[in-house]
Amino acid sequence: MKESSASSSSPHRRTQTLPLPLHPFGRCRYRGKETNGATQTGTTLPLPLHSFGRRRYRRQEVKLPRPTRVKNKTPAPIQITAEQILREAPERQKVEICPPKQKITDASELADYRLRKRKEFEDLIRRVRWNINVWIKYAQWEESQKDFNRARSVWVRALEVDYRNHTLWLKYAEVEMKNKFINHACNVWNHTLCFLEV
User: Fold this and answer.
1) The pTM is what?
2) Per residue in 127-180, pLDDT tens?
3) How crowded is residue 187: how many other Cβ atoms within 10 Å of its Cβ?
4) Angle between helix 107-127 and 132-144 (nearest 10)
5) What are the start and end residues of every segment in region (Disordered) (predicted)?
């Protein structure tokens, strides 16, 4: 009885420490020296696993601005309702800023513009070759420039990448029909029937 009361009253009470689980890899840094799960004396070095997943954040104080004091607390003579604010909101919104349209004044500027756009499309195709939408945009842009031979070349290259894609065949045929190249459109439809085996 005396031993238990003496041990409970003493400031340095002995407690039993349980062994902590070892790190799964068994490697750690112990007082600046790298060890393989053992100290220099040959005993194993327990590494607590619970401390690995814990992140320690510094407490950051957020300084909020002081609230401004309202001097005049009397109600305004004209009151605005929430419905009125919602009605006026679209009118007060700023118009979306569109990039300025480039004005081309001579043939050299047009050639530079076309070269730059073609380089952009070719770089994009080099990066994402299997994306069919890029091919379609490129071919439609060539069509918008009225350069139909280049547009056909782009369509054929796209079909070499994925000839089983029916969307490519349809859009290619639509472009030929829209621009009234009937023979080319017939050829496209014939190739479509051959390759897709409908």
Assistant:
1) 0.48
2) 988 899 999 999 999 999 888 999 999 999 998 888 888 888 889 999 999 988
3) 13
4) 170
5) 1-25
Report the candidate in 185, 198, 127, 125 with the shortest Cα–Cα distance to residue 157.
Answer: 125
Q: Judge whether 148 and 179 are in contact, CB under 8 Å.
A: yes
Q: Is residue 176 part of a domain?
A: yes
The total of structural domains in the chain comes to 1
Amino acid making up residue 28: C
Q: For 38-47, what is each residue's pLDDT tens digit?
A: 444 445 555 4
Is 35 exposed, middle or buried (CB count within 10 Å of its CB: 0-12, 13-18, 19+)? middle
Enumerate residues 6+ apart whose C-beta is below 8 A from 135: 125, 154, 155, 157, 158, 161, 168
C-alpha span between 175 and 154 (Å, rounded):
12
Phi and psi torsions of 83, nearest 5°: -60, -40
